[in-house]
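We emphasize that the prediction below concerns an isolated chain of 430 residues; any contacts that depend on oligomerization or on bound cofactors are therefore not represented. The input was used exactly as deposited, without trimming of termini.
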Amino acid sequence: MSHLTTKKNFQIFSLIIVFIFSLKYFQSTPFETLFFQAQAFFLGIVLVFLMLFVFTKLIKRRKFDKMIFYYLLLIVTIPFYSAYRASTEFGQPFIYGVLAERTWLLLGTSIWLYYVLITKKISFSTMESAFVFMAWVSLFIFTIFVLTFDPNQLQSSEEIANFVHLTEDRGLRFKFQKYFITFGSIYYFVKYMIDKNAKDLIYMSFFLGFVFFVIQGRFYILAILLTYTFYLIMNYSMSRLFVIVIKTGFVLFVGLLILQIIMPDYLDRMSYLFSQMFTVLAGQESMDSSANARIFASLIVFEYFEMHPMSVFWGTGRVSHQWDGGYDSIFGYFYPSDIGVLGGIFMYGAIGFIVLYLIPFIFSINVLRKLPSSEDVFIVTFKYLLVYALIASVQASFYFTPIRYLIPLLILYAFLKMQWQDKIGKKSIN
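Result of the prediction step, given as a token string:
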């Protein structure tokens, strides 16, 4: 094995470790306890990297990139601000609030990804290999779980009960980390559209099959399909798009006929779930208890805002489930993440909406707008992975899982910065 191959394999392994911890890959799995113990050590490493990154900039008197500096400020300030607000509103001890927001420290891994790319310590091709590897490993392992284990049996064990969750219409489901499944679904779609290789279409069908038949998330499916639609609209003329729509419509029609014959219950169930979702979006009570729970959670927020008007602006902070039973002891069953952007405003207020949602949204749009036309499958994939993140942001991912949009954002930003540097270099040579 050559030195270069060994170096690349080590880099891929390092990236995989970073992905596992930054995206909480083993959260809600049988390995959750061990994972969080190891993650505490990982967070310490991230903190050391960020300190060295900042000190190096200061010592060498180099300017901070504005976007990177912005996210450094968020990493430092959000945990303390949230802890202060939760202490003020609910009397939660300050330390619980800071620890509850330790997820923001994980954003440092996105800055590390940006750093290793911009300094050419790791190449984009190596980064691509790591993502593709994680996509296939995730698909393989998750499929083995679905085919091998019965979620009803797992629920009976207290140690691994968190790995499954009960849904009213789909029964017990496994909780899987979907990030790399999403990447695989978009990556092989883009690869097929660029290379026109039937093999990539087959690979894409594997990932989409998992999305439609295993995960079955209503909004998740809708977000991926909308991402595909954006790709087609942005890359094809109306005449060509019309042909694609006709072909796709025919394939979908045949597929639905086959499903109706072999899996009629699946179509009936998915049709019902989507109809209930749109009923709730229309502001009406549905027959879906999970959807109705979001309506009731929204009512809790509105009632709280009515009683504490200033919390609309300042927010209430994050309450840790480790302190006095968490939100259950205050409101009963209540999770701010269930109600999307409204839940984010409840926690961080209008000021948080601007700082954590609006400004990052503008950052993302600007990066997407400045990206040059490219046939690089990895870069185009991340372009539309960021588009997917913007679509999914209505579920408040910018508040509750910001790492999921920041990874593609800063990888694309590193790509842009390197292109700018290359242009400057060429001009200086000329």
